[in-house]
Amino acid sequence: MSEEPLQDTDKSMEPLAIEGKLPLKAVGIENLKEDNPKHMPPHRYLHPWFARRPTPASRLAILGSILPKETDSDELLRLMQIEPREGIDGDIAEYVEKKKATENDRSGILADHYGYKRPFTSSPTPNQLSELHDKLESTWGGELPTVLDPTAGGGVIPFESLRYGLPTAANELNSVPSLILKAMLQYPLSVGHLRSDLTEWGEFINESATDALEEYYPEAGSGDTPSHYAMTYAVTCPDCTADVPTTPKWWLLRKSASKGVAVKPSYDESGELSLERVQLPEDVTKDEFNPQDGPRSRGGNLECPNCGYPIESETVKQRFKDGEYTHQILGVKYTDRNGKSAYRAPTAKDQEALKQAEQRCENDIDVFNLLTEEIPKKGEKTSEPVGYGLTEWRDFYSPRQLVCQYEYWQAFEKAKEQVQTRYDKERSESLLTILSFAAGKMIDYNSRLSPYKVSKGYPENAFAGKNFTLQWLYVDNNLTSGNRRYIDMISRIIDSYEKIVDYLDDIDVEPATVTSRDAADLSQDDNSVQTVVIDPPYYSSIMYSELSDMFYVWQKRYLNDVHPELFRNELTAKDEEAVANPSRFTDIANKSSSKKELAKKSYEEKMSDIFSELYRVLQPGGAMTVMFTHKETDAWDTLTMSLIKSGFVVTSTHPITSEMPDRMDVQGGGSADSTLLLTGRKPHRERNLNDRLPTLWSDVKADTRKAAKEAARDLIDSGMSLTKTDVIISAFGPTLRVFADAYPVVDDEDNEVPPRRALEEAREAVTQVLVDEYLEAEGIDELDDVTEWYILCWLVHESETFSYDEGHQLGLGIGVDIDEIKRSTKTWRKSRGDISLRGHDDRVQNINEKPEDRSSRIPVNPDDLSFSLALDKIHAAMHVYDVQGESACCDWLRERNFDTDSTFKSTLKALLQVLPHDHGDWELARDLAAGRTRDVLDLDFSPNVFADDGDETTQTTLGDH
């Protein structure tokens, strides 16, 4: 539970439920249950989009922002469809929490264990809606409140608003999700069910395209139909002139490290490459041929399999920029006449089909001129592929992929003519829009960005990492057959749309108003909206418009005549988009203003403009709830200033678990695993910030630390499943409320103090709470600053890779400039702009080598008798134990008197607590704290104290303690 008192001085505002207690832990549990790829809400399967919010969190934000404060938790949860079918003793939130605690002990499915289905599968009953509407009309002056989402994206917030029968408005600048909004918020209510017609035309499109594509996907034998191809590239070896595949692996299906299906390369005397399918371990063992060792190393260098000649990564990159490479088939997954799947090496027929596609791209004028729009060269994300010679959007596809996409588009055009003739305008628009969504699915699973997943032997989607990463092992997908067929894609889309219609069938509500414009220039009248619920753009975390151009260039071709208002431009709108995109300022940045600083300023201005516009359209007393999911201090700093400048009064903040921790797409990125619900109200009386007397930072600082510490303690005691990073982020909310109440804040020299100062204080205060709570090692604060920073990074972030901004702020809090220590200590390195902590193997010279043969760039010499950093002592000891064994390590430890070194013992004990148990350094730390080395060191603790009986391969979260 969380309780936040209303802080506004305008007493005429009706307090809302979100300004009181909320069942945060129970809703967080439901968010995690929904975050399951096998059982997600149907709107997620309509078309790819980024960062959709969970249904439970969205429902809580909506209901909390419109219901009066006296609404209790049970009533909220029942309206959210979180309630067991059979009656219970006690409140619902406690029931949900108890069920979560015993979830792993269940014998049946989740719905049976909890006693109710996942909330997104249920809409409120007619009786619930009637009671809800009566209460809302009483609260909002006799009318139902209008809910507006001005940056609606994938549409979860406005869709859930419709399910509560509320007047709803959704706006979205980007044309790609604008189409999704129409299919979610308008067509289900204005047109209704379309299954029969959608199925008919989906089959028509598939049959037409299949006939046109038959020659490009030849069978190897009678009835053996290709499903998809594992593809890579080949460049010519400068030494022997043989083809060198650029694949990092030879696997087609890896069942384990030594078992599976692979292709084994061989070369004849002329250097001709051939590939043989092999089964491990039946045909060949891993010792004889390791499919994990492909020609491409992790650093991007190649080694010719024929002659062993090394080709540096920069040379490879230049070859790609110059177009000096070919597409290489590694293997084929196919389906035999009995419907069974298998793998084979490529045949001459496969190679010939590939050449046919290449010739078609060169000789067919329509294909030759397809997708010739230029990829922006200076984009934050698009600069990645441009560096490899991709200059037009067609370059994201191999020749056969491009032909395949083209034929499905042509089949759609044939269907379009007949659909527009047979049906009225509204029905034909809805049919064609929904049918076009299959193009997005095809793009996602059939491009040079689509990875081939060797552990399962099938395609993965291109945008899991929200970037344009060229895959060195990619999928060429036969959309007419196999695992990722067009007909399966369109069937899933149809099922999803029909389920959305089902959810709205019994709701008496008008279709939502959907607009596609800048959120700083809305179409709503002044004071016309009661509630805004907004999930704003994620600062620098997701470059929506750059990424969505991949879909836009196709949708423009599919639907330009159906939705001409959405496709006026060559590419999506970039200048109006509210993201912190440094690449937009490359040409105007200078020494006094870096492109990152200019991007931050631009984002703050755009968010201020958006919040000011929302202030305009909200009626006095109206509420705006912001769902903010971000880690970087800059993002929070910008959000706070934007809210304050636009006139809102911050009245409540609530943290809620919203995503499964450590999900793939945010590791090391800017998004957090929890969402903060931050509510601001539009006061009845306008507040002039210029008339407010400034507050001294020295007075605000203590209140800031107190608020952050109290919030952290409450969160730890609540048992919510939050990572330690999210505890820090969640404490930002109360911190910012203190700052907003005191604004403007100035220092002793009358200089304005920005919100980031308060956030830095909060981060430092909460970090100390985490140390006190979770580190048993004494003397941590007596360690050198570098070692303390290293330990705190592992404690707080629970990962070796995390945001640079977070690591930098953590360093500043204890007096460490991490940039100054980077080269001399080698404690961390940059990885795609993030921090990656180094282990002992990257920091310690090899003691078994002669001193003159060792690299001087490696900072720790294990022969030294003393070390300046406690971390160096531990890492050196780990190295000696690892390469020379326990006996030699015992002698090494005695020589340096580490049995009486308190900093050695404190650091060892701390690392045992903070390192993940599957990390090599944790295993070595455990070994040092056991056996004979334990006796030498005279330790008063055992490594078993820090072992997790349940799962020794992962680090615990706060909810596990």
TrEMBL record:
Q: Which GO terms describe its biological process?
A: methylation
Q: Where is the DUF1156 domain?
A: 22-70
Tree of life domain: Archaea
**Is this entry keyworded Repeat?**
no
UniProt signal peptide:
none
> GO terms for molecular function, please?
methyltransferase activity; nucleic acid binding
Keywords from the UniProt entry = Methyltransferase, Transferase
Establish whether keyword Signal is in the entry.
no
- Provide the protein name: Adenine-specific DNA methylase, contains a Zn-ribbon domain
Q: What's the source species for this entry?
A: Natronorubrum thiooxidans
